[in-house]
Amino acid sequence: MAGSFLPTLGVWLANELGLYSILNSSRDTKLLCLQRFVRLFAYGASTLILALYLSSVNVSDARIGLFMSMTLWGDVLISFILTIFADALGRRRTLMLGSALMTASGVVFAFSGNYWILVSASILGVISPSGNEIGPFKAIEESTLSQLSPPAIRSDIFAWYTLLGNAGTACGIVICGWLVEWLKTQEDWTSTKAYRVIFGIYAFLGVVKFELSLVLSEKCEPEPQKQEYQQGTELNDVEIESLLSSDDEDGTPKTHPEVQTNRPSPASRRKRSIWPSLSPASRSILLKLCILFAFDSLGGGLVPASWITYFFTTKFSLPEGTLGTLFFITSIIAALSNLVASSISKRIGLLKTMVFTHLPSAIFLALIPLPSNASVAMTFLILRSCTQNMDQAPRQAFLAAAVLPSERTAVMGVVNVVKTLSQSGGPVVTGLLAGVKKFWIAFLLAGALKAGYDLAMLRMFLGYRSREETAAEDREERRSRDGSAS
Description:
Shape: globular
Order of helices and strands: HHHHHHHHHHHHHHHHHHHHHH
Strand content: under 5%
Distance between the termini: 49 Å
Radius of gyration: 23 Å
Structural class: mainly alpha
Number of helices: 22
């Protein structure tokens, strides 16, 4: 009995955790997930020591905050330009260009300590002050993964994509922390020299990511215009819906009349515009999501990982090795929680998974600065990590299902730009608060903003049905009608 139970349990767990989905995915899907691991490894390594490096070259707290904000402003510009034109210019080329900018930034940070040179490199290149995504990569990769993955397993693919990113961050942080601590014990090695080694590794990983982008196949590029048109026509009756599905007073769902769409002429199909176009329904949902994501990102911008490491160093005098181990633990927990999120979303839906997992993390975030004991503060940080990223994979799947396939790269790019722009206002505020010994206020504000985002998301989108869900139900209804008629 036990012999038959264990294999059955193993199959059940593999299905629940989406293991079969990622193993049976295409080569390009695996390469994109590997790219994310390499990139987030580099981000994690640099994030641990970014604020400490700037402080070691005599940059004040206020200017460190300004540096982080200007870095994010530069990312807004670079990301907007590259993601808006990515489909027209080629997704693989855009990913390679972003990798080259990442390498250039690492080289500058490895050899220069001048504040304004570093600012210029962070604005024009790719440096992450938070350890999270920055640059054009995420929007392009998410759009490509959505194209490569069937809707039934898309949430699983995004869960593993997010998990590998968090695992990369964890590995980068812990290796960076202990490497820096070891280098500082060597003769004639100062903290600044040790930090610059990390940025050299960052530049090398940019080259690795460039090579991984180079071997992606043609399947990663946007689908031909004709296919995109046919998909848009199939979902046309959904495009004219209002954002949220509504029922009549007696509870009967409203029906939607068929809408006739003019097919584009062959000449217009051959001529492909570099500017993406969005349907009215997509513009409506994009506006609402951007407003909500802006509040969440502003909260995240107040306490990015670089500021949290700086907080623990200045308040509790934790060494880099201990910090690396602490953030390794939190990142691994956050990574594994994504697989749980995928299983939960299959039962209660994407939206409820997003809200009910993210809200506890906002509360624990607000509690981090209150204890005077380092162990208690670290406990709150670890508790926050248990559900901190569980909303990411459901949110990516939710957004991908809400817009047309041909719109995904542009929509995800706009969302990431809005999130980064909102996030950019946070570090400079935290820098000013840290300069007057009021660092704890930033944590409270961040927790309040993130909790408000969760509650507003639930209020606005509870009961929402995506384009794909509505289209599938409409097709099933038509098949049933046709079967009854015959």
